[in-house]
Amino acid sequence: xxxxxxxxxxxxxxxxxxxxxxxxxxxxxxxxxxxxxxxxxxxxxxxxxxxxxxxxxxxxxxxxxxxxxxxxxxxxxxxxxxxxxxxxxxxxxxxxxxxxxxxxxxxxxxxxxxxxxxxxxxxxxxxxxxxxxxxxxxxxxxxxxxxxxxxxxxxxxxxxxxxxxxxxxxxxxxxxxxxxxxxxxxxxxxxxxxxxxxxxxxxxxxxxxxxxxxxxxxxxxxxxxxxxxxxxxxxxxxxxxxxxxxxxxxxxxxxxxxxxxxxxxxxxxxxxxxxxxxxxxxxxxxxxxxxxxxxxxxxxxxxxxxxxxxxxxxxxxxxxxxxxxxxxxxxxxxxxxxxxxxxxxxxxxxxxxxxxxxxxxxxxxxxxxxxxxxxxxxxxxxxxxxxxxxxxxxxxxxxxxxxxxxxxxxxxxxxxxxxxxxxxxxxxxxxxxxxxxxxxxxxxxxxxxxxxxxxxxxxxxxxxxxxxxxxxxxxxx
Length: 477
Description:
Blueprint: H1 18-46, H2 55-58, H3 66-74, H4 78-88, H5 92-98, H6 110-113, H7 121-135, E1 150-154, H8 158-169, E2 173-177, H9 186-189, H10 198-210, E3 214-216, H11 227-233, E4 236-239, E5 245-246, E6 259-261, H12 262-273, H13 279-282, E7 292-296, H14 300-312, E8 316-320, H15 332-340, E9 344-346, E10 349-355, E11 361-372, E12 378-382, E13 388-391, E14 394-397, E15 401-402, H16 406-409, E16 437-439, H17 442-445, H18 450-468
Parallel strand pairs: 1-2, 1-4, 2-3, 4-16, 6-14, 7-8, 7-14, 8-9
Antiparallel strand pairs: 5-15, 10-11, 11-12, 11-13
């Protein structure tokens, strides 16, 4: 195990200006932290067994070469570790922060399976890429030669940005269209800053813009520009809109003041962190401070809402989920984090209705798990006579997301969609039945993981390059 660095202390003179004293303390802390982080990264990386069958790699959607960059990190060869990591992942510092490693690489680590605790792969991935940025190892996007072909990408989320990165490095002219005022999609406005710092996302956005990607923000396809016009502008179009339509509850009391959508709550919080004017936050409508909060749902979005509520100063935070803990779709690590922060989970509980306007409570019906459904998952059943009212001043509905009706919104009845409203596209390439039109990420898969969107974007970009012809002209990073 790597030797731990000795702690050092800075002497601050009494008559020293307060700002300078604070700067000295901060610089000393940063130095100590950097040494400690490097020691921990080497310690954890050295625990990798370098097994013959790397389940961590096979269970990563990007098939990152995890054993190799762990070995390089353990040897102190961080720049090489970074180069291996970024070879298969467009945004390793983002995945290191927000991937549910407990369900993917770390959960399938041989060391974890043998009962000795997983190698903290995500933390190491974050560390080596953060170090790469600090040391200047992350090179600008610089195609060796420019190409005349252009690709339009609708949606500046992880899937769209991953495709933009690969295409731009090959010299293709790329324009990204997005309805919001900042690129990043859910990375910017959906995921809380305590999980994914916004300067980390903006740094990648800046890299793409400086590398020649054109961003047309505040642009709503179907209103500000038609889909047909986009197709006429570009040699190929990639649909990477994600899924933003919130699932609704049908119950008495829906529509009362104090019932809000998760996406609105999280977006308001993230906008506030950027320093934007957010009247709905300032008025208290989308602010949990001093309130009894009830979050309905069991996915990662629900976990983001409960943990954001705690940070905003809610007097109490409870999460209602209609199944038990074992059947919760969200990350178990996130559930544990929320519990440690004081969130109370009411398992096997579902909303039956809402009391008051403004809301004062949630009518809750208790459930039990019955026979498995068609997918093998146990279906919840109502326990008659076990209803009660859960007091609440703010109810956040985090029931998941569905695709918007893009064929209608874009006046494209021939755009192929499934019965769930997702776009029909080849999973390996993203190609749709419309010539030159591709789709990636959640708009194809349904609500899924950021890492899958990145995988889809990269695969789609490679397919487009093959369609456009010569793929030998690639960027040098």
